Request: fold
Amino acid sequence: MILIDGKKEAAELREKLKKEVLELKSKYNKVPGLTVILIGELAPSKIYVKNKEKSANEVGLKSEVIRYPETVDEKTVLNKIEELNNDENVSGILVQLPLPKHIDKQKVIEKILPSKDVDGFHPTNVGNLSSGYESSVPCTPLGCYLLIKKIEPNLNGKKAVVVGRSNLNGKPMTQLLLKENCTVTITHSKTKDLKSECLKGDIIVAAVGIPELVKGDWVKKDAIVIDVGINKTDKGIVGDVAFKEVSKNAKALTPVPGGVGPMTIACLLKNTIECFKRVQK
Ligand code: NAP
Reply:
């Protein structure tokens, strides 16, 4: 079984991006800029943002974090986004989720210019992705896609099963696999007999949030299994896939932690560079 080393793959991707940033700098005399807006004091959000800033600096992007207290009003945030939309030194804007309840998440997402939407959440990017046009793609499914392609470059005709249909993970993952000519089944909490659906998959991507939901006997021999889940349990952090059991059947499997997670931030940097390049065209 191939243990997919997300840390190594992410480090390789960051190295590639670092070189690309240097090339862009010599070509355009400027580097892509990523601005992150962080609202409130949620510990996981603060850690994510710190890691994003660190990785962005590592590859040579210009990075900035704008911090607001939990009590900031919606208008202040929308005005700041407007200002960043008009700032030509800012290639990508990300507003760290979740937001406080008094701020309308969808309004915030839609305020970001689609050309600067490095998270790929703006309806224009969602529509472009599903229509097969150029778009920013949400970072986690993009990371999963790159890991799958590394194991199996030709996905033509493969059967893929995506477990979970969130806008963040399951739906964009489905679109990426469709684009690669997979036959995709997307499953969710109302799916009947999830086991038999999973057993059809040459590729399984699990993005659910239920510890070890996908069992060893749900996975056909030599399937590629990508585990997006991050679940805190008494045993520590575990994924949505029963790792030990599934590793006996799978051809390749991502561990949790150290699988999909590291690719997510690397893909954010990739998206920022892509946004910069599209504007220079
Ligand atoms: P989400 O928005 O809560 O969506 C979960 C999806 O799973 C929903 O579509 C839900 O179906 C489906 N589901 C729930 N119970 C199910 C069941 N018993 N059988 C089949 N499907 C079921 O979650 P998310 O944001 O996509 O996140 C999923 C997991 O990925 C979480 O553990 C999260 O922490 C993790 N995550 C990891 C990363 C990373 O970088 N590695 C990034 C983001 C998220 P319904 O639509 O019917 O409700």
